[in-house]
Each structure stands twice: as C-alpha cells, then as structure tokens.
Amino acid sequence: MTTPLPSPPDMIPVLSRGKHRNSRKGACFMEMASVLAGERWSDHPRCTHPLLGELARHVNDCTSDANRQKLAVLIPAVVGLTSEDLRVDARIALRCAQAALPVASEERQNVMAVSVLTADCVLADLDGRAAGTLEDASREALESAPQAAAWAQKFVRRAGISVRGFRRHAAPNTVRGAVHAIAESCSPDPDGRLRQLLVAVIADCQALCPREDHEVQVTGSVLPIQEARTEV
Fold first, then answer.
1. Contact 162, 90 (CB under 8 A)
2. Around Cβ 7, how many Cβ atoms within 10 Å?
C-alpha cells in the first residue's frame, strides 16, 4: 500500500528553473525539499533518493512556467523517500522509460527502447523474475514502437547489460532522456504527462522505501510565495 500524497499548505513556493545560490534568487523543486527537510540549501538534499531527485529536477526544469507551480504540492511527498536498494533505481528508470517510449520522437525511440529492456531486466533479476520475461507495461511500451523494439533487442543481446554500471550511468541517463523525450514530444499536454510521471514515481518509491522521519519545516520567510491551492 502507498501513503497518500500530503495536502498542500495554504502558502506554496513559486518554483523556477535551474539551480539557485540562495532563496533570494528563487527555488527549484528539490531546493524547496531541502528546506522542508531542515537540511542546508541544496538541489541534491540527502532526504530524497538521488534518482528521484534527478527526476524531480528535470521535471521542474522541463515544465513550462505556466504549469510549474502545479508541482509544488508534490514537494513534501519526496522528503524522507530514500533507500540503498537497487530496486528503487531500477523501478524509477523503468517507469520513466515506459512513459517516454510511446510518445518519444523517432530519433529518441531506440534509446528509450533499450532503456525499457535494460531496466526491466535489472528489476527482473533483483525480484527473482524469470529471465526474458517482461512486465505488461514494458511489453505495451515496446509494442508502441516495434521497429525501435526490434533494434533494441538486437543491441541488448550484443552489448549485454551491466548491473554494476546501472545505478551510476544507465539509470540517470534513462531518467534524463525520458523527461526530455516527453517534454519535446508532440503529444497532448506534455506538462501534464511529466507531472503524472513524477506522481507515479513518488508512489513507486513510497512502496519500496522505508519512510525516514523528517520534521517538515514550512515558513513564509524562506522563499517568495504566493497564495494558491492546487489540486493533486
């Protein structure tokens, strides 16, 4: 079971793109998470799984100015979600690749198809699933791009899969590539797709990560704020 996303406070931060030196310069999604966790100002706070933080930073930066504020209500949900379990990395990467492949441009499809196969294989090994089997969502994503899927299967058979390098290289590259593939796609409402991806990954992490206790600190003087309520 997953815990519900927290309700937004009456006053929520105004988010902006990129890394900021301090709160006077603005704040991104993960910088605000560091404040809520009571950590020093950083866009890489320890309170959140590194790959979840990577996804949140890229979703923050690739979402349009008009819709970025809708992400703010999700910030408290990432505080305390962290684990050393490689399954978390594999699940995040797989979820991102599954979401991106059906809408990715043709030039990005091969990479996303390889990412689906790689992350699914790593997760299957960690979960004790039979080799060569795929999750239904992975199979559906690959069926949406049959030519890319065929190319990716040949590539993976030839190149193999390195579990050792998955966490350091393959998983972060998958997350970055997936976010940009969705943001640059011609699909309806890419901002909404990115937000839904972040919501889904948060739920995945809630199911896999033992929740760490953090005292969430919300103060009106930390960041520029505006009065708003956004539905999850």
1. no
2. 10
List C-alpha distances in Å: 140 to 57, 101, 156, 210.
27, 10, 18, 30
Phi/psi zone of residue 128: left (φ > 0), alpha (ψ -120 to 50 degrees), beta?
left
Contacts of residue 73, defined as CB under 8 A and 6 or more positions apart, other chains included, come to 5, 6, 7, 8, 12, 230, 232
Predicted TM-score (pTM) of the model is: 0.84
pLDDT per residue, tens digit, the chain (232 aa), is 454 544 444 445 688 887 777 666 779 999 999 999 999 999 999 999 999 999 999 999 999 999 999 999 999 999 999 999 999 999 999 999 999 999 999 999 999 999 999 999 999 999 999 878 999 999 999 999 999 999 999 999 998 888 778 999 999 999 999 999 999 999 999 999 999 999 999 999 999 987 655 444 433 333 333 323 333 3
The residue length of the chain stands at 232
Pair 46, 81: CB distance under 8 Å: no
What phi and psi values does residue 30 have, to the nearest 5 degrees?
A: -75, -25
